[in-house]
Amino acid sequence: MIEKLDIAERSKIWIALSDLYLDTELQEYTYRHIAKIIAESSYTLSQVRQIDKTEVFPVLYPNMLSSLGVWDGFHTTWLIETIQKKIAQENFLNRITRNLTYRLFKKTFAADWEKIREALPRKSNE
Whose CB among 57, 90, 94, 124 lies 3.0–4.6 Å from 120's, allowing a Cys bridge? Predict the structure, then answer.
């Protein structure tokens, strides 16, 4: 469970990563923005990737399956509340399902993560 004090910083990461799930082609400035948010946080790139896998992905991956997916941004209050609820409901079956589903999408995100990594300042690029 995430401590309350961590939610403010964590939500900045959630909001930035939500752009990866929009039904649109991302631009270079989007990758730079995500990289900037990561660099300004206390998290390493590998920690952010884990946050994406375990917290953001389970909530937003269905948008990638929809023919009428969200393309202009997710409502931040909804996003933060929904991720917190999903974390609170975490159990063994959810983890198994999430991990299997994430494997199916892992290649989909490979180029995005490479562009984010390239946009990071050297010290944040772990």
Answer: 124
102-106 long-range contacts (CB < 8 A, ≥24 apart) are 102/53, 102/57, 105/57, 105/61, 105/64
112 φ, ψ to 5°? -60, -45
pLDDT tens-digit profile of 37-95?
999 999 999 999 999 999 999 999 988 887 677 777 899 999 999 999 999 999 999 99
| Mean pLDDT on 3-14 | 84
Nearest to 78 by CA among 8, 1, 6, 14: 14
Contact 60, 18 (CB under 8 A): yes
DSSP code per residue over 56-100: IHHHHHHHHH-TT---S---HHHHHHHHHHHHHT--HHHHHHHHH
Cα 78 from chain centroid (whole Å): 15
Which sign does the torsion angle of CA 25, 11, 33, 122 carry?
negative
